Amino acid sequence: MLGLLAFTGLAFANSDCSTGPVYNLPPVASNGTSQVDYIAAATGLNGPHVHPVNASAYDLWYFDVVDTAPNSNASVVLVFFDTPPGTFPFPPGSWNTSLLVTLAITFPNGTFASTTTEVGLATNATVVVDGEGSSGNWEGVGLNWTYDVVTGAYDVFFDSAQFDGIKGSIHFQPRGAARYPCGPGVPGQTMRLVPNAGYVNPLPDAVATVDLIVDGERLTFTGAGYHDQGWGPQPFSSAVGSWYWGHGRVGPYSVVWFDILTADGVEYVSTYVGKGDTALVTSCDLASQQVRPTGNNATFPPTSSSPKPSGYHITMDLGAEGVLDMNVSVVNQMFDLTEYMRAIAYINGTITPPGGKPGPSMGGPALLEQFALQA
Questions:
Q1: CA 82 to CA 26: how far, in whole Å?
Q2: Domain 1-234: which topology?
Q3: Which of 41, 180, 223, 285 could form a disulfide with 65 if both were Cys (CB 3.0 to 4.6 A apart)?
Q4: pTM higher than 0.85, yes or no?
């Protein structure tokens, strides 16, 4: 592991030899007008999509992994933000830079690492585009990610004094191809998740290998990995009233769900179902998916004053394979804030073929979040 850490700076520097552009992101918002990408180009799927980020806009890169071992609550979630004050509701607080990193870690027994309550502050950031991927470095934080254009794999490296001396790496080996909200990762696709918010999903699922030293303990596990990017030209809360998002595995299937209400109450969805390396469903059709809260506190639509639900019922239309029916139970809440919840969860699911009966029960881990931004 230490040898790998010693190589981190070189690995990122070598990315500069790519044929794609290099973006230098300043720590303060631009005074200019932001140009926003919503139509996919031939390259740059995971590069910056707001040019430049002004005081109303945001861009962020999100990575996570949740342990696939039975009864384990181990997870890592890290987010690289380019978010001027007031543009994105998480993390709560105010800083003198737009370039932030959050790092939430849970151990197998569900306890939280000290990094979970901290925010890393960067002096500058660099994103290097290579094909459809990118490498990024939030300078001064001690965390960066790299992309391998040959294998499609991502690696995140940790050597951070800001996050209590954490060291190590996470390797994300793709399990399925990159995608856009409504279709595969090919040029010409829309990147619009809802009006005034974009989304790309370089890793709908990945075999993620974690090897970290955190709080003086070694944390190693293999889990379901995920990476996406979100952006918008205006504050997130003006585009989104509420949203349910999550990803996980159920039996041999990989799933990603979005069920969103805009600030004026219009519903949008984005559905992904994969099996191995094959995408079965990538759709924004409302008929492709529905997510609703269940159990205690099953308020819909959710509001900022309503308690968080204990689970969700999700249906996904698989076409000729039938309907995937999932009951998702919250297992361990990582954050429970007024407008936001993030949690480790467990999926129980069945597939009902057209005209048939439900098949055998399948299970697997998930990581999910809920925003409820209206009172």
A1: 9
A2: AttH-like fold (2.40.370)
A3: 223
A4: yes
